[in-house]
Amino acid sequence: MKKVLAAPYLVWMVVFILVPLIMVAYFAVTTADGAFTFDNLAAVSQYANIFIRSIWLAAISTVICLVIAYPLVVILARINVSYQSTVLMIVMLPMWMNFLLRTYAWMTLLGNNGLINMFLGLFGLGPFRLLNTQGAVVLGMVYNYLPFMILPLYNVIVKIDKSVIDAAHDLGCSNFQTFVKVLLPLSIPGVMSGITMVFVPAISTFIISRMLGGGSNLLIGDLIEMQFLGNSYNPNLGAAISLVLMVIILFIMVILNQFDDDEDRVLM
Amino acid sequence: MKKNLSKLYLALVMLFLYAPIFVLIVFSFNTTKSRSVLSGFTFDWYIKLFHNELILSSLWNTIIVAVIASIGATILGAVAAVGINGMKRLPKTIVMQGTNIPIMNPEIVTGVSLMLLFVFFMVRMNLEMGFVTLIIAHITFDVPYVILNVMPRFRQMDPNLYEAAQDLGCNGASAFFKVVLPEIMPGIISGFLMSFTFSLDDFVVSYFTSGTTQTLPITIYSMTRRKVSPEINALSTIIFLVVVAVLVINNVIERRNLRKRGVIK
Amino acid sequence: MSKNIISLENIAVSFDGEKVLSDISLDIKDKEFVTFLGPSGCGKTTTLRVIGGFLTPDSGVVKFDGKDITTLPPHKRNVNTVFQRYALFPHLNVYENIAFGLKVKKVPDNKIRSRVREMLELVNLQGFEKRSVDRLSGGQQQRVAIARALINEPKVLLLDEPLGALDLKLRKEMQIELKRMQQRLEITFIYVTHDQEEALTMSDTVVVMKDGNILQVGSPVDIYNEPKNAFVADFIGESNILNGRMVKDLLVEISGVCFECVDTGFGENTPVDVVIRPEDIKLVEPDDAHITGVVKSVTFKGVHYEMQIESYDHTWLVHSTKAAEPDSTVGLTFDPYDIHIMNKMEG
User: Fold this and answer.
1) Residue A97 belongs to some domain of the structure
2) Which of C9, C170, C305, C340 allows an S-S link to C61, with CB 3.0 to 4.6 Å?
3) Where are the alpha helices (DSSP H) in C123-265?
């Protein structure tokens, strides 16, 4: 009887999630007139360099996020419990600002006449070209998605029993050994969901690359956006690119899942 | 020594996170449009902001869409969660996996797939994308978060609670409203708040499904595309202060509740 | 003879094709303390749920006071339940939890207030009205759950392993208190447990269950002294269970030695299970006994010593107030009426 209550939601899911995804697949393999074709998918290969750049920049950003977040979370988890939630809130607070504004903030900082170049100018350095570089794109990704790495890591690491760490020391592990043999393996579920939660938005972004990368550092997201709302209107090609993007992400998630068979994956 | 190192690291990360925002705030009071030189103090940009029709109307749109979409998603999702909870293991797993799709899918794909759907049917009915499509799109990406917030409440609930209410004289419906609903209410509320913030904040999906309707993030995007505009600095400052205020109030309330329940002193 | 308050007639329940209760029938008398006893998965909680109305049996009839209530929903039954983990409503305080049943029935407020006060007195929780239920100890939660059920003045109270989560000392106290409560209120308690000691201490009648079947129904004394088969004997207290052969009436062969016994009617040369309680075995000089064994271990248990004594084909469990020397050889004897003969169980 109760099951009936899920019906409206199931209908909604089918109409607004499943059908649209099927339409993406359908558009990907048809021409504008609706004839079946593999041309769109074949055309995606022309953009191999953009795909590689997107994967590369997203991967670098993910690694940097992990490297910054892990020690931060370990420090956070050690703080006195009564301050912990406050410090965590302060760390997460910038995430609540709209990410366009956060990215815009870096635009003004990195510009040729921005604050950083002016500061360097005081020492007679520069001005350097900081904006419209791949470095700026990576910086933007790290800045925007760092919280997505911190949160799942924190949720896992804070629950690790402190006595397990003590036990490792007691059994003769050095700090480093304790980290490698105990802390890291126990935090793998958090690491994995952190990686997913940073990598997926990073590989598909189009705002960060457009605002911080200038026109020369196109990513997959820009490519898709251009086919739907940009100058080169071609939804069939856009659908094909989206399809390939989904397949890539699915593939990467399947690989990541090999490391993590935990059912209750840590989401937010 | 080690403790100081930790503090230094924490401070560096904080600097990285907050410096850009504080620069924005400082320059929102600058008299010139310069991004590096402070020339004087003014409230001009704030005044201009409050006279900017486009910003005000898109703020209004954003709030309306967020309110309608989050209420809709909360009702749809909470009712669905009750239903899903009553399912057998296998269908439950399938539905929950399906619920994860919009969360794990890149936003841009959700955006363009919905756009394809809307355009396909709208063109045939001579309609244009706008408020309605925007709300539908927002409900679609909000619902999973409501469900994911409510489902764990069922898992934490004593499985006999519903039966205990029946045992004490409630029929099925009143047992649900008297006992089960209060138990899952915190999940429903946090699902609603999450939906509301995601709707307020959403740019990518809105960008593809809004037609000519402008929400605040879309307006901000078009402003950043043009040249420097200190009005954005002013807007950022206001939004930042609102966020800080909301989080501080939330934190205070939470602490008070915890203290009331005797969890902390 | 008092009347039957609950009658189960040929109740069968299966989940996903697996039989949980197979065709059980049972009469429960009014004002009785009845315990369902058995290992986990034996169907005792399922039987309780059938009586409570949370589960409709696949076949069979449940009668309450002679009336068929098989399909009556739980809220219309004059039966209340104390759940395994209490199922207190976390959003309500102690007072509101206890008052719940009466509020649902729209009893006037002043009447509710005085009834709740009576209940708090009954379970010894005066002054806890405003307390939030998650700030109570396990024992206190237990009492609230009992008060919440009893305020509805049920004819029958169902208790599903209610003491399982409490520590040993508290459990003993609550056992006595529950028994006292049942006698004072003069209603039927149906109690589910897997703890044989608990069952023997509290009950008027014990129902031993296994694999969805009722093995034996009887008073604690009957069940302990005259277990129907080896399973019951083993489950109710510690036992020595041996393979034996009924030579003829009043004579049984154990370990190749013939013993006099008091049982008749098993036929001649029939294989049987023989049960001898560890406290019924006496240790004597080896020369004075037909069975001898070597003392393998001696453990002090407070009131008595528990010893394992190995004869050539069996390890005997013996309880005695005197300890034997480890590794010494001792003789074992027992009286004819301490030898319990039972048919071999099928399967």
Assistant:
1) yes
2) C9
3) 138-150, 168-185, 196-202, 220-225, 230-235
Catalogue all structural domains in chain C, each as residue range(s) with its CATH number: 4-230 (3.40.50.300), 240-343 (2.40.50.140)
List the subunits that have 3+ CB pairs under 8 angstroms with B: A, C
Please report which confidence band the pLDDT of residue B62 belongs to, taking 50, 70 and 90 as the band edges. Answer: very high
Identify whether residues A26 and A95 lie together within a single domain. Answer: no
Q: What residues contact residue A267 under an 8 Å CB cut-off, 6+ apart? A: A152, A193, A197, B103, B148
Cβ <8 Å between B24 and A105: yes
Pairing verdict, β C240-248 and C270-276? antiparallel
Distances (CA, A) of C157 to A217, B81, C7, C25: 74, 33, 15, 19
The answer as to whether A266 is a domain residue is no
Q: C228-257, pLDDT tens digit by residue?
A: 888 898 888 888 888 889 988 889 998 888
Do C339 and C259 form a contact (C-beta atoms < 8 A)? yes
**Do residue A129 and residue A79 come from a single domain?**
yes
The sheet with strand C33-37 has its strands ordered as: C79-82, C156-160, C188-193, C33-37, C205-210, C213-218
Given the structure tokens 């001009």, which residue do they identify?
B44
- Under 8 Å between Cβ of A201 and A65: no
Q: Among B161, B168, B175, whose Cβ lies nearest the Cβ of C80?
A: B168
**Using the beta-carbon criterion (under 8 Å), do B167 and C75 form an inter-chain contact?**
yes
Q: Inter-axis angle of helices A235-257 and A220-228, to 10 degrees?
A: 150
Q: Which domains does chain B have, with CATH numbers?
A: 55-226 (1.10.3720.10)
| Same domain, yes or no: A106 and A19 | no
Residues A59 and A191 in one domain: yes
pTM (predicted TM-score): 0.83
At residue B265, the pLDDT reads 43
* Nearest residue to B231 (alpha-carbon basis) of B7, B49, B85, B32: B49
Residue of chain C whose Cα is closest to the Cα of B182: C91
Counting the structural domains of chain A, the total is: 2
In this predicted structure, what is the pLDDT of residue C318? 92
Structural domain harbouring A21: 1-37
Q: What parts of chain C have a pLDDT lower than 50?
A: 347
Determine the residue among B167, B177, B188 to mutate to test chain C binding: the one whose Cβ has the most chain C Cβ atoms within 10 Å: B167
The answer to the question of residue A268 being in a domain is no
Cβ within 8 Å of residue B40, ≥6 positions away: B30, B31, B32
CB C329 within 8 A of CB C293: yes
Does A120 share its domain with A199?
Answer: yes
* ipTM value for the complex: 0.88
Question: Domain for residue A263, yes or no?
Answer: no
Q: Given A1, A6, A207, which is nearest B84 (Cβ)?
A: A6
Burial zone of A34 (CB within 10 Å; 0-12 exposed, 13-18 middle, 19+ buried): exposed
- C156: enclosing H helix or E strand: strand C156-160
> Do both A15 and A68 map to the same domain?
no
